[in-house]
Design a protein that fits this description.
Length: about 400
């Protein structure tokens, strides 16, 4: 059944079963509890940062629901294109608690429940905010991985439900070393620990697409865009009444992958050897350059399209465009029309990329350095050939 229809049916049952909902705010009993559910990482990259949801349980009123902001409609036309362009609507889905838990048991991902220390009025505030968000006209939102996701939505619901107290424990923030140093971190710093040796190629690709906006320092609120960080903060700030493991982790980890650093440093060594061996060839572009320039140029083209057409906040102002320059495609598509000015332009861009590595205006993936060196060597070789051909032509004219 379509997730939208499921949500509507569940909400209808809840609304009809709650006699206090007509003409006034929805009311939970004094036996109710509100919990933050944090789910462990999956094997896919997009699952490696975990998940957050809010459980509302009231045995007196036969309510046991999970409000899940991580839902989207798989039947959406042009799903992947809309996601890439930042135009995919996510929604607040409502599931029965047992159904939610069974889905994570099947995936083998752990689930921890933190029962929140809230007053009766605060629990009612949470419930009413969630039910308001679950209405047809309110449930959709534009997903933003760093600024508007399942974790930040759960954070905001909890924060906005508190009465006469602050979600942010300033004494904790001033004394706890973990949170005191958050101000020195960036969005990119925060996601790196979750892309381990099993996801290094994903990390390389994501690093290429993320712009310099992700290298700005963040505040404590932004720090909680990762579900695990929200979970840890709830544990620390006095809002956690109790915590328990609901589902054990049973999934099998992905095998380790070959590091991009190893691959691209090997490529760099091969580039040096090939350039030295074929230094006396007069070709403007050789068999080795075509796949190298095509790959880098294609990456640059994707970066350009994402920057220009995507509404994703994090892909703008991307200095990776300097080394992954779409102009490299011109060297492949029009090899007979290669101008020294094009080569000079690309060399300048590579030089600025090296300067960026030193200054750290935007953090590059560590595997970018050998790529820059390889490209520089091949461009210098092409420039050398350009001069050699020009001298040979002049000598023939004499």
């Amino acid at each position: 059944m379509n997730i939208v229809k499921k949500t509507f049916i569940i909400l209808s049952i809840v609304m009809l079963g709650n006699t206090d909902c007509v003409g006034q705010s929805l009311q939970l009993s004094h036996n109710s509890t509100i919990s933050l559910l944090t789910c462990g990482a999956g094997n896919e990259y997009y699952l490696s940062f975990g998940h957050s949801a809010i459980r509302v349980c009231d045995t007196t009123r036969n309510i046991d629901l999970v409000f899940n902001y991580g839902i989207f409609d798989f039947d959406t036309p042009n799903l992947y294109l809309k996601f890439a362009l930042g135009n995919l609507n996510y929604m607040l889905g409502v599931q029965y608690y047992n159904s939610f838990i069974r889905s994570y048991e099947r995936e083998g991902r752990w689930v921890v429940e933190q029962t929140l220390s809230l007053t009766h009025d605060e629990r009612n505030n949470v419930y009413n905010l969630l039910m308001e968000n679950a209405k047809e006209e309110n449930r959709y939102y534009r997903y933003d991985f760093f600024r508007d996701n399942c974790s930040s939505r759960a954070r905001d619901i909890i924060e906005n439900s508190l009465i006469d107290r602050d979600f942010y424990n300033h004494k904790l923030l001033d004394t706890n070393s973990t949170y005191r140093h958050v101000i020195n971190h960036t969005f990119r710093d925060i996601i790196y620990p979750y892309t381990n040796e099993k996801l290094m190629w994903w990390q390389f690709g994501v690093d290429a697409l993320l712009g310099m906006r992700c290298d700005r320092t963040i505040n404590i609120s932004q720090y909680m865009f990762i579900p695990f960080n929200l979970q840890n903060y709830i544990d620390s700030n006095g809002l956690c009444q109790s915590s328990k493991l609901i589902v054990d982790e049973t999934k099998t980890d992905n095998p380790k992958s070959v590091s991009p650093n190893i691959v691209f440093w090997t490529l760099c060594v091969l580039t040096c050897l090939i350039t030295y061996i074929f230094a006396k060839t007069n070709k403007k572009i050789g068999w080795f350059d075509i796949p190298l320039f095509s790959l880098v140029g294609t990456i640059g083209l994707i970066i350009t399209l994402m920057w220009a057409f995507s509404s994703h906040w994090c892909v703008k102002e991307n200095l990776n465009i300097l080394w992954a320059n779409p102009i490299f495609l011109l060297l492949v598509l029009c090899p007979k029309k290669i101008s020294k000015y094009i080569i000079y332009t690309l060399l300048i861009c590579l030089g600025v990329s090296l300067l960026n590595i030193i200054t750290g205006i935007q953090q590059y993936n560590s595997a970018v350095l050998p790529i820059i060196i390889s490209l520089t060597i091949r461009l210098l070789h092409l420039l050398h050939n350009e001069r050699r051909i020009k001298r040979a032509t002049q000598n023939m004219g004499r």
